[in-house]
Amino acid sequence: MDIKETEWYQGRPTIVQRRIDEYPPQFLYRKKDTGHVVELYSYDEGEDGLCKTCTILILQKNNDHMRIAMERRVFGVPFDDLERLEQWRDNGKSNNNANKA
User: Fold this and answer.
1) Residue range(s) defining the domain that contains residue 71
2) How many other C-beta atoms can be found within 10 angstroms of the C-beta atom of residue 78?
3) What does the alpha-carbon distance between residue 74 and residue 67 come to, in Å, rounded to a whole number?
4) What is the dihedral of CA 93, 97, 98, 100, to 10 degrees?
5) DSSP 8-class letter at 45
6) 57: CB partners within 8 A, 6+ apart
7) What pLDDT, in 10s, does the model give residues 29-46?
8) Whole-number Å distance between alpha carbons of 13 and 51
9) Is residue 13 one of the residues assigned to a domain?
10) 60 within a domain of the structure (yes/no)
11) Res. 85 pLDDT band, cuts 50 70 90
12) Is 40 part of any domain?
């Protein structure tokens, strides 16, 4: 099913939908400044009505190339700091709630 056809997508504000189109939640991303491979957890709509940042998950299962001392959720990450990978995330093993943003 196309994400745009989901109730979750259609229930988001237009500005968030644009970010979802640009940064789809089904992909993994590389955090440019640290090299971590991350999953999108949520799209953050600021008080100004813009969607400039997101919350990500840093999980060991996505980072075999480095040791993750503590798996964590990081908020306030600028979208410009993420590089999309052509690798789909493994929803079967993740505790990710990106679709509940």
Assistant:
1) 3-87
2) 11
3) 17
4) 150
5) P
6) 38, 39, 40, 41, 71, 72, 73, 74, 94, 95, 96
7) 999 999 999 999 999 999
8) 10
9) yes
10) yes
11) very high
12) yes
**Displacement of CA 41 from its chain's centroid (Å):** 5
Which residue type sits at 71?
E
- The count of structural domains within the chain is 1
Domain-located, residue 35: yes
Residue type, 38: V
- Which pLDDT does position 90 carry in this prediction? 77
Residue 33 is classified by DSSP as: T
Whether residue 86 is predicted with pLDDT greater than 60 in this model: the reply is yes
Rounded Cα distance between 86 and 93, Å, is 18
81: left (phi over 0), alpha (psi -120 to 50) or beta: alpha
